[in-house]
What does this fold into?
Amino acid sequence: MSLSVDWIRHRFGKLASREASETNSETTPLLRSTAQKRKRIYPHNKHIVFPNNGLFIQDFKKVTSNYPGNKIRTTKYTLLSFLPKNLLEQFYRLANLYFLFLVILNWFPQMEVFHREITMLPLVIVLTVIAVKDGLEDCRRYNFDRKVNNARTRAFDWKHKDYVERCWKDVRVGDFVKVVCNEIIPADILLLHTSDVNGVCHIETANLDGETNLKQRRVVRGFLSPDSPFVPEHFNSTIVCEKPNNDLNRFKGYMEKPDKKKIGFDRKSLLLRGCTVRNTEEAAGIVVYAGHESKAMLNNSGPRYKRSKLERRMNIDVFFCVGLLIIMCLIGALGHMIWLGSFPDWPPFEVPDENGKFTSPALAGFYMFFTMIILLQVLIPISLYVSIELVKVGQVFFLSSDIDLYDEEMDKLLQCRALNITEDLGQIQYIFSDKTGTLTENKMVFRRCTIGGTEFSHQENALRLAAHGDVDSDEEEAVGPQRGHRSRLQFNSKNKSTRAFRRCHSAKAYYYGGYGRKKSEARRDSEVAFSSPLETDVTPDKKLMKIVREAANQMETWCEVRYSSDSASYMDFFLALAICNTVVVSTATEPRHRVTGPSLLKPSIKTLEKLHSFLQKLKPARISQVLSSIQSNSDQTGGTNQISPSPSGTSVSEENVAGGSSSSVSGGSKDSGVSSKASMDSGVYVEGVKVGDEICYEAESPDEAALVHAAKAYNFTLMSRTPDHVTVRLPQGVLLTFEVLHTLSFDSTRKRMSVLVRHPITREIIVYTKGADSAIMDLLENPSLENGKENKINKNASKTLKHLNWYAKDGLRTLCIAKKVLSEKSYEQWSNMRLEAEAAIENRDELLMETALNLETNLTLLGATGIEDRLQEGVPDTIEALREAGIQIWVLTGDKQETAVNIAYSCKLLDQRDTVFTINTDSKETCESILDYTIEEVKRYAAVKNTRTKLFKVPVDVGTVYPLEGAGPTFGLVIDGNTLSLVFEGNLKMKFLELAKHCRAVLCCRSTPLQKSTVVKLVRDKLKVMTLSIGDGANDVNMIQAADVGIGISGQEGMQAVMASDFAISHFKHLKKLLLVHGHWCYTRLSNMIIYFFYKNVAYVNLLFWYQFFCGFSGASMIDYWLMIFFNLFFTSLPPIIFGIMDKDISAETLLGLPELYKSGQNSEGYKWSTFWIAMLDAFYQSLICFFVPYLTYQGSDIDIFSFGTPINTLALFTILLHLAIEIKTWTVVHWVTMIGSVIFYFIVAIVFSATCISCNHPSNPYWIMEREMADPVFYLVCIITPVLALLPRYLIRIIQGTFVLCPLLKARQLDKLDKEQRDEEISEWRKRTRSREATSPGNSGHPLGRTLTFGAPLNVDLGNDGTTPPGRSMLNGTEIEHSDTLHIQIAVTENIYTSIPVSSADRTGDGGKKAEDNSDAFSAGHQRSFSIMTI
Amino acid sequence: MGKENPKVGKPDNTAFTQQRLPAWQPILSAGIVLPLFVVIGLTFIGIGIGLFITSRNVQEIELDYTGDQEGAPCAGCTNATTNCKCTLPFKIENKFEGPVFMYYGLTNYYQNYRKYGISRDDDQLYGNIDSLKSPANFCSPYQMGAKQMPIAPCGAIANSLFNDTFRLFYKVNKVYTEVLLDDNGISWWTDYNVKFRNPPEINGSLKNAFEGTVKPLNWPKPVYELSTNPNNNGFINQDFLVWMRIAALPNFRKLYRRISEGNWSRSLPAGNYSLEITYNYPVLSFQGKKKVVFSTVTWMGGKNNFLGIAYLVFGSLCIVMALIMLIVYAKYQVQIDRDM
It folds into this structure.
């Protein structure tokens, strides 16, 4: 709400500012023309910013200062407005209005039933409690705001002509703000200056979109002047840009200089609020959007008021109760009218009004209607609302004190941030999960590699990782033992390295001022720098290490042995790992300060000379081999030209690599390498290492970092990177600086990246490419060119492919590394083309793509790597359990498709047998037809399944047939962000959902935060299902808020997600117990309690209602008013609340063992229409019994009204409590105490009350009634038979249910009674039964292993095989054709390079691209699409 | 919520917080509840028999004297305005074992009518002087009488006090012997001794205590002249007390007298009786009936067969169900056990 208010304010602000800007144009000559022009070109839709530097004081004041300041306010109330606003808001709630209505009614003497004070009591209590709660909540928000608002930053003050410290809230649009490294950006700032020579500023947007990589921002063109400091006073342009909007990726505008020259800028120059400056010493800019107008805040849509499904359902039933009430009141009113009219004369008991006149029957009936409302008000279960609140508090208490959800390491419990939706946890049907950090640890670890057809399994590394997993809590221990077998020489004591490590840590802790929190060191480690020991440590494979070392030695010692091509390719491979990336180097002590120049090590001159001469000698030989390019030519080697002897020892100390954990690896092995060559004077190294300083790598993606670390483990250390140069230190200790000619960055269509470098010694131009196997394999050089090499290349490639298959099966992320040597001439050609492309205005992107494609051909495969994105502990298990529980799991990730699919397989989200549809397209029509086609396909299988099911009469689970229950072919859907936006734009939502409904798992890759939430909303609203979102980063915030239940994972990526979530847990695996156990419990408890409350109120109120038939519908009550109010308030409130908090129908072990029990909650079995109405009927029946048994007993006797009411009240208490006793499944001490306590309490209160109240409580006359009743045996006789009679039907039903055990829940309850071993046995047997049922259901057996259907975009044409599926999971050759028939695609075994490869190793036929070309005509004209079936 | 302070620490690992309290988990099924049903059934049948016999032993005679039918003894009095007397002869077949209670009964009289039921001032009746002089508004319109003098006792209930009186004669050989009726202790002891009190007497006179008040509209005499017995006068008049305890249901009886004087206290012999009624109370306006009831009482009060029958029926029902369950158990439980 506050947000909407802000929006309105902001809109008004806009209007005002627009007017202001127009008036300005008349007053300020300087601006007149521009303003007019502006008006012409951009009518009313621009945001104009005047700098606050004294040059535009007038304009600034008139225009810019009207923009909202940077202060944010997310609170609802102020101190003054709290009471009225809160009351107003509370009275929006229906329940409170009802109260108020009753209070007002009771003030009319004609209708008054109770004391006026009595009726007011509940209202006052409820209002106060809620007001206090709201107040506290708001207070928390206020404190949070204050923290943010008072955070410090430096803004330019033109009066002081310098930057001064200022609070965030005082920053205004137009201010010049300076931020330094690791600071949070206070507002949306247009970057005008950085300390970087290239005008680049790195920011980390983790707080905004959760992406932990660094993003580059460039200063606005024309402001790049690294030499001269930026002087805000001289800034004389006005800035015109877009209106504030919430699109993080859209920002455009221009700067208008006084001479009307315009300089354009885009989002590449915008620093967003909430981001952190990294790697850049300082940056300055002008604030364009502040406070609530900043993109971050606009993206931060306020929290949705959540009401649980159960409560929504309940509210409907409350309306039924209202209906019932009205009917009862109408009966009362009519009855009264008729009754009054039936007397021939005014009877002596009719009381006239003050004037002695009698009310006419009609009018009396009218009054009676309202009197009845007051009398029967309890029918609307207001006490229910209060009780629900209490029950939820109790449930939350138990939720958050569950030790199984406690994370020892982080000392974090489950946090319940939303108190009112605990029961939703038991009804979840769809889970939307983030991937990175949620399913995975977001730690990429280098696992294995294959080079030149030889696989290196890195057993030691695997061991280490396993060990790490075990001793997660104590990293040092885990690191310790590995050192033993890692290297022979340990130059560095363990202490030393840990100390360095520590230092690195402490330096990294920083204050995240923007959102007022401190990130834990642990988080800091894992999150950004990708430098946790787990990731940085790579234990080299012994064999490979030896080979590498030998290769180096060959070179070093310059033995005359023929320099083997193999060893060259090893060197090349690691060089590629080190170079072919966008990793930036920084040092650990100054976190995120980039090492710009190569920090130099002075190698011995002797070595350098040797190297140089070696290379010179080598060169001619190699050049002759360029074409064949088997022998990778760039080999190894020290760079001379760039190794400008560093001037000092300081640089030596700076370099020294290996502080911290990584040092121990590389350092150790390097040392051994060094020691092995006698001729080297290794002093330099050793010395250098001693004064170690860790190098930190900052990569755009964690796998790049993993690769660089891997290279470093083999002593190919990336030392520095600038846009033009990259320096690598070789095992020999030589620094080699490559000139970077071009970097063809990664994109999802090419699925690879390349770096074009010039070798410092050989001057060769080399292209290093790394990318998905599918992307690289098709681009390898054509072996037919040189027959002699053919075999070898083929063998190499096929072996590598085989290895890649292994990797993929292991769930590793695979990357192929390849290279190519370019002749000077062809480079020139290409370079020209590239320049042209870059200069092109139209279809620049296509041209650039084309040039990239041009370059990346005829590659030589060097090898491949396998990287593991470690799944969090227990993820596959959790997913399996959740799925068994009937929950559909979608993964929405901003990540690459390949990665997502990989993870999906490894966490069992996708199964090997699943048919996976992959949809990537750029055109709406294609998308639509693909969806149509796929739905048809899916339905066909569904139909087959159904008919077969009928045929075989497979036993289906009792009760409901759950969707996705039967096995049959299961489907997976992979869709990317682009396609997703097409789906949303093009009204294909329903089709998409239709398809998704049939899919077991859906993966949305490359989706933006907004898309994530749109998907969630779509599913939630259209399918009408209960959704849960789980995520850990700020990019998941929208999605978390959109879902019915939002869960944040704390401790991985900061608090943003947690702040927005309803529940915060520390690991994904906790979801299992949270949903299956606590969800189930909370749901059944609450639903049972609500049903019980409805029953209770109706049963009790009906007693009064039946009495109306015997008191002339006069609204009289036979029960003392106080006892009546206490009845609901005290005597029967605690047991149901305890029931709602503590009842446990099935033990946690059984629930975890049998996830399918969760389905009862999904199907709302605890609270259905029927349940409600049965409870109502039961209530009616019971109230009839409870009234008429005493009635018939006392009929015609001399009993007085309250003596009649007291036994009724008492037996109603017994009945209602015993009813609960039937429903309680678990009787603990607490249950007993409250149950018996309630009864005792009732008697005590009643006795004391009747003994003391002589004339205290006017209309009723309780004096000594209870005592007399208790002395009367009839009282007891009535109180015994009535409850028994009343509860008999329910009891019988329960007995029948218990005898014939029909529902699984009851079955499970019986299991609980068994002892542990027996139960485990039963559980496993049960599961086996379910399994076998699934297995016998057809489709599964006859279905092929699974296949992948990829629908690609035109751009994908020749990359149809996008490697989304690990090869091992594709279908068999034979079945392929069968399916291709269904696809109407001929399998064109294209003549590609692989045809000659032995089929056994790799049968990469079905090249999607070709096929698509072949068949594109068959499909919608104009839109190319490719259906590819990948077979290996 | 512990968020600001992340060191919430490990939760207590107790049976309570971990929801592992030892518990009794009953599962209802035929086999288990079978004995329960048998026990309940037998007990209830036992109670039922006892109740039924007790109720059967209660002797009761009910005499309608409304006079709304032609030829009825009191037919002439229905429209009379002043003290109309009529005589109702009746016969008792079997001896009534004492003590015998005499009730008057009204039907279709809604004492529980809400507006009527609240129309009294408990404080006034408690002898509170202030309330005596200024009765509570509940009494309206019977709050203030003529000349704005407060009515004592105020309110509709008091105003409509039942004022028929009865005398009972035993007829032996055409000789009428009056059966002495005891009006002591017909109201609740607590009402007489605690709840109702006369205002403190002034100069030893109750009349003075009620100085400044007027009698209720319908009353022929003021409240301090209800009886000649000073212990039964004013607010603590037993008939008044009985009337003030409003009946629960529209057809009710109220205790009029106990027959506990002299020989009559032992029993009411069989024979002919005659009831002399001073007919004052109009009931035709609400189509009511007036009755006189003679009844013996037992430990369970007056005659009421219902409870005994209910116990009997329900007890038998339980036994029948127990039998059904036995069959079910024998037939299905084994099979179910096999299935499990």
